[in-house]
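cron nightly-structures :: item 1 of 1
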Amino acid sequence: MGLKPPSFFGTRNLSVCEITERSGAVLASALSSNPSSLKELDLTGNHLGDTGVKKLSAVHEDPSCKQEKLWLPDCRFSDQGCSALASALCSNPSTPTELYLSCSHQGDTGVTKLSAVLKDPSCKLDKLQLSVCGIREQSCAALASALCSNHSSLIELDLSYNHLGDTGLKKLSAGLKDPSCKLEKLLLSECGITEQGCTILASALFSNPSSLKELNLRGNHLGDTGVTKLSAGLKDPNCKLEKLLSYRRNHLPPPRSYRRNHHWPPPPRSYRRNHRQPRGEVRSSDAPAHM
């Protein structure tokens, strides 16, 4: 059965469909036949790997590609796949506007490549999700440089569940305090930030008028000093912050799968319902050995 006509092909949700590198290549080939028809593509939770992501990246190199939103969380690709994606976005930087790459293993190398794309004058990317990506303090300087760029249109950045620490936050704060920074929403949950880093962040946000409207610092050890600094900054008339999340109440930890192997977020409820084990069924691994 062939793909539906372009008029029915504006959005595709293929999350958790057991798509592998091989079937990812087939999908990329189908998309390349008419790249302008697809606006949104969700491939969350599929095992595309670097090979599958590279094949999909080739589609974005086509100038006729008009894809606006791309979801690739937990697709098992590394910095190699991320570099291919960044290279494709440089070839055709006008798309997408939203990119979701959480729960991958691109690390600092991949993030540095993506940061270079954000500086491109033609780049329209305004939302970037990089939670649970093994990012450390090294790539924070590259991100800060991108935020300082006059050409960056990024307004939302999610770096949650990466061990940035106070050193990484200090580097990132250099970009936040720049007048050219357009960021409005910053998520930094569980990033190993202490009251020292919180003090640096508060100083960066309130030393100059900031565009930031929402800040999420849940799950960090801010301490009384850090919270006091943030509270003092909220009184500044130049402060545009509308939403500040810094408490641990009702903050749920990542699911067990994340703690075990960083495969997060979990599959949607519909997937778990369709793959539920029947009652009374004994898996072969749990069956007692024959005597």
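cron nightly-structures :: done
Confidence is low (pLDDT under 50) at residues 1-9, 249-272, 277-291.
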